[in-house]
Design a protein that fits this description.
six-stranded mixed β-sheet; alpha+beta; globular
Length: 397
Amino acid sequence: MAIHLRAHAFAANPLRGVSAATTAMSPSAAAEALRYLLDPSSAAAAANPSQYLSKILPFRRGRPLARSTDPPAAPAWRLAWLPPSRVPGVAPDAFVFLGALVEGDGKEAAAYWAVDVSEGEGARVGGPADGDGPSAFVDLRTLMVATDWSDKDAMAELAIAGHARALLEWHSTAKFCGACGAKAVPTEAGRRKQCSNDSCKKRIYPRIDPVVIMLVIDKENDRALLSRQSRFVPRMWSCLAGFIEPGESLEEAVRRETWEETGIEVGQVVYHSSQPWPVGPNTMPCQLMVGFFAYAKSLEINVDKQELEDAQWHNREDVKKALTFAEYEKAQRTSAAKVDQICKGAEKGQNPSADFKVGSGEPAPMFVPGPYAIAHHLISSWAFEGAPKLPSSFSNL
């Protein structure tokens, strides 16, 4: 069966695009309120008491602070938001504004912030006393797999954590102006940076790394091309993907990457959807996965072994078997239990991706990435609904 989400994982962030008119809180007003809250003993704070709430999400080495909850059915997780008083020793300019929401009875606005506490006094943040329930810094990929995709609130918190990690990673890499080499300083509550050189003053915006990801389809033989990379866990197959080069359209990138990696020529390219992907390498802090169906004009595979371990055509029935809904539920529950163990102080846990089994207890012959990945939805859309019908004008491509 197909799994349909309201939005891709890491999308539908409730804090994104929140206007000042909605919350009566601009980034500058939120930053001023935070400064007062960070030093409540100061004369400025006493003269200007803040009417805003500020909630802080600490990160350590790219991992957000999460807490374990114990609902009746199974373990779950939520972000562990802290008041400013629980994040000691961090300079005000280190905080990155994520957005604001009106809370409670609709009269009080809360500002949400992220901050890296990997170094200095702030590194003491965390532990079982923080938040409602035990908490720990948990890898975002682990949280991604552990998220119940039917839980709207959990998906929203995952999107917030992804946005926060992308911004913090960008801040850690964009420390200097690319034009003159001077120090880059945060402005607009950390939403952008600006060169500190008065003769330059270049504005620096968060980096986005666009990636095309495509399911290549053999329409005549009702097959799809799936590939393996050496870093994949055993039996996992996925779509082809690659970064877009300067001066290249999305469609050109799909055709080039498919040809370079598999030797297959692609004709028509049809857009499917896109997904923020903040769990890539730290040097690429915010990838944007742009998904396509791509129709093969040639069928012989010639794998570039420097890029891929293997690539093969798979028929629709085999792909459907790889999309077993129960297996993803099992992986989600296993990973949620792992998060619970980490929050309670047990760092060692089972690797959920390595434990895909069919009902008989035998290892599944193959599986594809879970519902948190756009690759899953590209593959699932084709397997259960069929490839989209092409206009007759495309028949010769």
